[in-house]
Amino acid sequence: MKNQVNLALMGFGVVGSGTLQLLRQHKRNIESRVGARLNVLWVCSRTKKKAPYLNRDIGQTTNWRKAVTDPRVDCVVELFGGIQPALSLVTTALKTGKHVVTANKALLSKHWDVIMALAHKHMRLVYFEASVGGGVPVVQALNEGLAGNRVFKIIGILNGTTNFILTQMEDRALSFDEALEEAKKRGFAEADPSFDIEGIDAAQKVSILSSLAIGQWIKPSQVHCEGITHIQAQDIRLIRHLFKCHVKLLAIAEKRSTGWIFRVHPTLIPESHPFANVRNEYNAISLYGNAVDDVMIYGKGAGRLPTSSAVISDIIFLCRQIAMGTAGQLPYVTSLNGERLHFSKLSQIRCRYYLRVRSLDHPGVLSKITGILGEHHVSIDSIHQDAQDKQNGNKGVPIILLTHENLEANVQASVRAIDRLPSTVSKTVLLRML
Amino acid sequence: MKNQVNLALMGFGVVGSGTLQLLRQHKRNIESRVGARLNVLWVCSRTKKKAPYLNRDIGQTTNWRKAVTDPRVDCVVELFGGIQPALSLVTTALKTGKHVVTANKALLSKHWDVIMALAHKHMRLVYFEASVGGGVPVVQALNEGLAGNRVFKIIGILNGTTNFILTQMEDRALSFDEALEEAKKRGFAEADPSFDIEGIDAAQKVSILSSLAIGQWIKPSQVHCEGITHIQAQDIRLIRHLFKCHVKLLAIAEKRSTGWIFRVHPTLIPESHPFANVRNEYNAISLYGNAVDDVMIYGKGAGRLPTSSAVISDIIFLCRQIAMGTAGQLPYVTSLNGERLHFSKLSQIRCRYYLRVRSLDHPGVLSKITGILGEHHVSIDSIHQDAQDKQNGNKGVPIILLTHENLEANVQASVRAIDRLPSTVSKTVLLRML
Question: A267 and A415 share a domain?
Answer without folding.
Answer: no
